[in-house]
Write a structure and sequence with these properties.
This protein has 161 residues and is mostly helical. Helices cover 47% and strands 9% of the residues. The longest helix is centred in the C-terminal third of the chain and has 18 residues, at 119-136.
Length: 161
């Protein structure tokens, strides 16, 4: 939600305001819209989860999801360098909190644990997420894909795909 942090953390992404405006436009057009608070970065963006979910709901979101940051392979070095440049005083706190949700590591290869984390900190995150979803009337998780809402391409176009 912090436009300054957003600009530094995701320099080529839409601003938080533009993302919320998109949710509003979709919801107003009858398209089920939601928010994915991802990746949540413990010690850096974790305090924003309640505000993200509140703003999304206020703009018409129907559902919400989240995932924890994970730093596989070379991504760990890239993120560590980013922290050196932009959050040097908080670097060790942030990396420590990431390790706290990934069993002492910066990443987990377990398909489920890598997205939600493990341990007490991850349990607290999940509880906060679900409490915020309930408070703002958001369905937790993304909608189930229903192919019945789609139609077949007209004859002749099918060969393109």
């Amino acid at each position: 939600m912090d436009p300054d942090l957003s600009r530094v953390l995701e320099p080529r992404a839409s601003s938080p305001r533009a993302r919320l405006d998109t949710i509003r436009a979709l919801a107003d057009a009858g398209v089920p819209a939601g928010v994915s608070a991802a990746p949540m970065i413990p010690g850096l963006t974790d305090s924003e989860m309640p505000a993200i979910l509140a703003a999304a709901a206020a703009h018409g979101a129907a559902f919400a999801a989240y995932s924890m940051v994970r730093l596989p392979g070379a991504v760990a070095a890239v993120f560590s360098n980013w922290l050196d440049r932009h959050q040097p005083l908080a670097k060790e706190k942030i990396l420590g909190r990431i390790r706290a949700v990934h069993a002492g590591k910066l990443n987990s290869s377990n398909p489920v644990a890598r997205m939600r984390g493990t341990g007490e900190a991850a349990i607290q995150w999940q509880a906060l997420f679900h409490a915020c979803c309930r408070k703002h009337g958001l369905r937790s998780g993304t909608p189930v894909f229903d192919p019945a809402a789609f139609r077949r391409l007209t004859p002749g176009q099918g060969e393109l795909f």
